[in-house]
């Protein structure tokens, strides 16, 4: 088989975790001619943020040798129906409560479930948890590097404004993002500025008007706004402290770099559980007030699927931003977190035992899927 091959790639635009995982897997596949599958918004952003390191081609989906799909079960099923072998990556297998959130397991080549803490096991869909065909892979995170430090604090809000889920009103998504900024990011910036702490970067999918507001609060901050995954990795290597929304990829990336980290209140359902299970037992984290988001109601909403639970979380954030009492409670929790922060951060270092070789493991399965297809076709 020619060293070069055609790879069809698709990610779910649900935060930036999928984008980061795609770039790490593509870094392991330098001979791939990549065609992006999805709507123009997703493919355009992917090309913008990864185009400096990867070239993308335009080919018909059915002409691909193999497909890589990250966190989008519906797209995986569509591509499998084109007779293209699909390697499916689920970075949140513990989060899937309904069968509709999982691709047709008998139609795809490989289902790669990213390993997660054992304490989260009861959360997972039993039919997936007990399925013998799951390939359990290490977390897909950048390789450990020596951190330089010296540039102070980095704030990260990840894929804010990036949550695109069929069935959820786009206005609710935007309202929740604006409410999160009001409840969390703007007070945090104000506290740091008042305390004289150096903030070198505020990273994430921030709009120009968001960046302008943050710059008014942090006039000495060097870099505010979206960064490519490669630039974000360099930013973390220069940092002394990370204050981040609790996305698992960023948490594990900071741990591998030996970067102390504090957690912000969660933006979405997965981050609610990450905040609990990726932090040290007893660590002080600014979780949402219980009257705002009750875990039992979240679990009930999870049984109705991703749209229901995400809508529930978004509405709670929007409602909290409209409540002076809840806004004050959240701000006070963030202030306490900063004042009482341990020098080594709040992350559970035991999670490093999950591994960090996920990208190379998925790349190997992509190559294996191509070999099996070539053997079956007689090429």
Secondary structure layout:
Layout: E1 5-11, H1 17-27, E2 32-36, H2 40-50, E3 66-70, H3 73-80, E4 86-90, E5 110-114, H4 126-129, E6 134-137, E7 153-156, H5 170-195, E8 199-203, H6 208-217, E9 223-225, H7 229-238, E10 241-244, H8 248-257, E11 261-263, H9 269-277, H10 295-302, H11 306-321, H12 324-339, H13 358-377
Parallel strand pairs: 1-2, 1-3, 3-4, 4-5, 5-6, 7-8, 7-10, 8-9, 10-11
Helix pairs in contact: 1-13, 5-6, 5-11, 5-12, 10-11
Name its key features.
alpha/beta; Rossmann fold; single chain; five-stranded parallel sheet; 2 domains; 379 residues
Class of secondary structure makeup: alpha/beta
Give me the side-by-side strand order of the main sheet.
2-1-3-4-5-6
Tell me the name of the CATH homologous superfamily of the largest domain: Nitrogenase molybdenum iron protein domain
Order of helices and strands: EHEHEHEEHEEHEHEHEHEHHHHH
| Major β-sheet annotation | 6 strands, parallel
| Number of DSSP strand runs | 11
What share of residues are in beta strands? 5-15%
Number of domains: 2
Coarse morphology:
globular
Overall pLDDT confidence = 90
Oligomer: single chain
**CATH architecture classification of the largest domain:** 3-Layer(aba) Sandwich
User: What gyration radius follows from the Cα positions, in whole Å?
Assistant: 20 Å
């Amino acid at each position: 088989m020619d060293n070069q091959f055609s790879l069809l790639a698709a990610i779910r635009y649900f935060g930036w975790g999928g984008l980061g995982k795609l770039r790490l897997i593509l870094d392991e596949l330098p001979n791939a001619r990549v065609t992006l599958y999805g709507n123009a918004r997703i493919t355009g952003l992917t090309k913008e943020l990864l185009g400096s390191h990867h070239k993308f081609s335009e080919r018909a989906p059915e002409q691909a040798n193999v497909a890589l799909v990250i966190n989008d079960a519906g797209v995986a099923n569509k591509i499998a129906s084109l007779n293209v072998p699909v390697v499916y990556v689920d970075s949140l297998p513990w989060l899937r409560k309904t069968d509709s959130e999982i691709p047709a397991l008998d139609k795809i080549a490989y289902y790669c479930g990213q390993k997660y803490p054992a304490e989260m096991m009861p959360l997972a869909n039993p039919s997936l948890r007990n399925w013998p065909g799951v390939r359990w892979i290490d977390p897909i995170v950048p390789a450990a590097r020596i951190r330089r430090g010296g540039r102070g604090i980095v704030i990260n809000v990840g894929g804010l404004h990036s949550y695109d889920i069929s069935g959820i009103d786009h206005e609710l998504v935007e309202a929740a993002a604006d409410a999160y900024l009001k409840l969390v990011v703007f007070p945090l910036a104000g506290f740091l500025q008042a305390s004289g702490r150096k903030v070198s970067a505020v990273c994430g999918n921030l709009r120009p008007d968001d960046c302008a507001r943050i710059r008014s609060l942090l006039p000495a901050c060097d870099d505010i706004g979206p960064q490519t995954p490669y630039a974000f990795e360099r930013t973390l290597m220069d940092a002394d402290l990370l204050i981040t929304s609790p996305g698992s990829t960023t948490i594990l990336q900071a741990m591998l770099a030996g970067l102390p980290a504090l957690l912000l209140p969660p933006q979405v359902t997965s981050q609610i559980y990450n905040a609990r299970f990726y932090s040290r037992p007893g660590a002080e984290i600014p979780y949402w007030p219980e009257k705002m988001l009750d875990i039992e109601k979240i679990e009930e909403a999870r049984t109705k699927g991703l749209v229901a639970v995400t809508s529930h979380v978004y509405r709670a954030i929007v409602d909290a931003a409209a409540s002076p009492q809840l806004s004050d409670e959240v701000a006070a929790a963030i202030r306490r977190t900063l004042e009482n922060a341990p020098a080594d951060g709040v992350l559970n270092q035991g999670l490093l035992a999950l591994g960090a070789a996920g990208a190379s493991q998925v790349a190997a399965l992509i190559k294996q899927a191509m070999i099996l297809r070539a053997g079956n076709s007689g090429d």
